[in-house]
Each structure stands twice: as C-alpha cells, then as structure tokens.
Design a protein that fits this description.
Elements: H1 2-5, H2 11-26, E1 30-37, E2 40-48, E3 59-61, H3 66-74, E4 78-80, H4 92-96, E5 101-109, E6 112-121, H5 131-189, H6 200-228, E7 236-239, H7 240-258, E8 261-265, E9 272-275, H8 277-293, E10 300-306, E11 312-317, H9 351-361, E12 365-372, E13 376-382
Parallel strand pairs: 8-10
Antiparallel strand pairs: 1-2, 1-6, 2-3, 4-5, 5-6, 7-9, 10-11, 11-13, 12-13
C-alpha cells in the first residue's frame, strides 16, 4: 500500500490513491479527504459507491460535528455513528443521509492535524476498535505521501516562477543592449563622425562588455527555455572532430588575447555521433570558455576526441581545479564556487547547467572526470554513436 500511495508526486493523484486504498482496506461505501483550514474542513476529493454530486471545495465548521471535533482534538482515529446531517448544507447532507457508521482519521504532521480522512458505511457491520490500527497506518502513509507531493509541487512552482522571470528579464534587457551595441558599432566604423584617439580604448572596452552582456542574456534565455521544454534539439549525425574544431575556432581570439595555448588531439578517422551539431558546439564552447576563465597563466587547454564504441570529447585545462566539496554542485543552476580569487570571473552560474541539460536531451552525458587543486580539470562529453 505504501509503495502505491507514494508512487506519484502529483498531489491530486496521491489523494485519489489514498481514498481508493482506504475505502478498500476499510470495506467502506464512501471515503472523503478534507484539508484543515483553521476552524474548517474543506473537501479535497471523495469516493462514493453511490455516485453523489460534486462535493469538492465544500467547507464545514469542525466544531459543528462532534465526531470530527473529537478526532481533531485527540489526533487519533475515532469511530462512531453518522454525522449530524441537519447541521450541514446541501449537497453534503444528502450524501450522508443514509450513512450508519463512520471512521474519522486525522492526518497529523509535526503535531498538527493537516487533513482528515472520513470513511463511511451505509450498512452493518460497524467499524470496530481493531480497525483503528489499520486506519492509523493508512493515515501515517498518507500524510507523508501528501507532504512529499505538495513539497514537490511547491518546488515546481518556484522553478516555473524563476524561469518566467529569467525569460522576462532576458527579453527586457535585449532591447536596450541592442541600442547600446548599435551606437558602439557606429562609433567604431565612423558613422557618427571622427572619434578622438583617446576614445579608442573606452570604445573597445564598451564593445567587449556589450558582448559579455549578450552572452549572459543568451544563457538566461536558454536556461528558461530548457525549463519550459521549448528549446529545439534536432537529432542527426554529428562529426565530433568538426564540432570540436568549430568550438576551438570560436574561442581562439579570446585565447590569443589571454596568451593561452589551445591544443587538440583528433583521430584520423571521422567520429560520428547522434546529436544536434549546434548544441554540441555550444557545450564545447562553454567548456572551453570556462577553462580559459578559470585558468592559471600561462594557460593551456587541450581538446581530445575519442572514437570507438563510446565516443567522447575531453576538455582538459591546467587551471585552479575544483575543490572536492564543490564537485557535485557545479552542474546546478546558478551555482558558482565561492572563492575570492574567482570573483572577477563574469558569469551567471548557468553554463555547466545548460551544457549538462543539453547533453542529456541528446541522449548523452557531461561529466567532470578529474580535478586536482592547482593542476586543472577534465570534462568529458559523451554522446551515443550514430
């Protein structure tokens, strides 16, 4: 029973399963689960063999029903006769009019009654004291399953809110950034007139920072689309050496500015994998830029492509390495290592999260294979062979 009740993280489905299993175990004709809100109970869901009208959302005062009041106050299952239907409104009073026996089971979490399960029989025999052990077991399982389902639902709601904010923020930032980038470009090409020589360095700084912001906004948009499931991943045949070479070409200008050395080791034969070429290059681009950002001077980054039954690309740097306690968290969204020496490095903490999610959507894996303090790290992108 416990496995069945806990098999879902959808609160509505958990409630439905609790009701079905409780009615079955209690040999009841009717079952209703009510959440407790201050001095009231509110119907969450119900099961009735007679097929009564919709009762969901019906609210009733706990104090008006002695059996309910006793169960809530004692925090223990209570058996008895029928509820006082003359103190209820339609349609609840009609659904209980022919009930003869009831069992009222409070669901208690951290000492507080959060919900109540009421089982009913329309005919003899009545519920017996021996039934209370079974009912208490059901209540214990139900309250834990419901708590987990609701916590999961709350976490999903927070994630959706974060994704919505990311999407909105990225779109709102794009327009003013495009205007700034446009004016910087016009100053560079002379459209706005001759630029004094003393302006060249500030303009170059503006251009670099604009590109940096464009990259951050792009990461925000990709992260929000990943959460929403709207980012396209086109499965096809990808030549892994070509993808790695494209990524190396993209970062080469930055590597030259930093005085870093890029090396590659490719097999002579093509290495074909199943995936999306654009997303594979994006992942490798993220890994290479991370290697350059966190590297120690003089920096050297090596990209190695492996063929065979388990094709992969390794990106190895000779940087600062990742502390052992941080390695399980670096793929989390927004996570950045707290290190004063790294605070100058720009970023959102989304690059590795995005890369791992994209790899997973292509049926692959992105892993940290090795990292030693002061000696660098090795990341591997594994993709299924074509």
């Amino acid at each position: 029973m416990a496995a069945d009740i806990s098999a879902s993280l959808d609160p509505s489905e958990v409630i439905r399963r609790v009701l079905m299993r409780a009615v079955e175990a209690g040999k009841a004709d009717r079952g209703v689960l009510l959440r407790v809100e201050d001095a009231d109970t509110v119907v969450e869901d119900y099961h009735d063999s007679a097929g009564v009208r919709d009762l969901i959302g019906y609210r009733h005062r706990i104090a008006l029903q002695p059996l309910m009041r006793q169960a809530v106050r004692s925090r223990r299952p209570t058996i008895g006769g029928r509820y006082e239907v003359d103190r209820m409104e339609a349609p609840l009073n009609l659904s209980l009019a022919d009930v003869k026996h009831t069992a009222t089971i409070p669901l208690v979490l951290d000492g507080e009654v959060t919900a109540v399960l009421v089982l009913s029989r329309r005919q003899d025999p009545p519920f017996l004291p021996d039934d209370l052990v079974t009912f208490q077991l059901i209540a214990n399982q139900a309250v834990l399953a419901l708590r987990n389902a609701r916590l999961f639902a709350q976490a999903q709601a927070v994630t959706r809110a974060q994704s919505d904010f990311l999407n909105m923020a990225a779109h709102e930032l794009r327009t003013p950034l495009s205007v700034i980038a446009g004016y910087v470009s016009m100053m560079e090409d002379g459209t706005l007139g001759d630029v004094p020589g003393s302006w060249h360095l500030p303009i170059e700084t503006l251009r670099a920072k604009t590109a940096e912001l464009e990259s951050l906004i792009s990461e925000l948009l990709i992260a929000s689309r990943l959460e929403a499931g709207t980012i396209p991943v086109h499965h096809g045949v990808v030549e892994l050496r070509e993808a790695a070479f494209t990524a190396l070409e993209r970062v080469e200008p930055r590597a030259n500015l930093l005085g870093a050395r890029l090396r590659h080791r490719f097999p002579e034969e093509p290495v074909q994998v199943s995936g999306d070429a654009e997303q594979v290059v994006r992942i490798l681009d993220n890994l290479l830029n991370n290697a350059l950002s966190y590297g120690s001077s003089p920096q050297e980054v090596t990209v190695t492509v492996h063929g065979g039954p388990e094709p992969r690309v390794e990106v190895r740097d000779q940087g600062q390495g990742i502390p052992a306690g941080e390695r399980d968290r670096i793929f989390e969204r927004f996570y950045r290592i707290e290190d004063p020496a790294r605070r100058h490095v720009p970023g959102t903490g989304l690059g590795l999260y995005i890369s791992r999610e994209l790899a997973s959507r292509m049926g692959g894996r992105l892993t940290l294979d090795r990292s030693l303090p002061g000696k660098g790290s090795t990341f591997s992108l594994r993709l299924p062979p074509a």
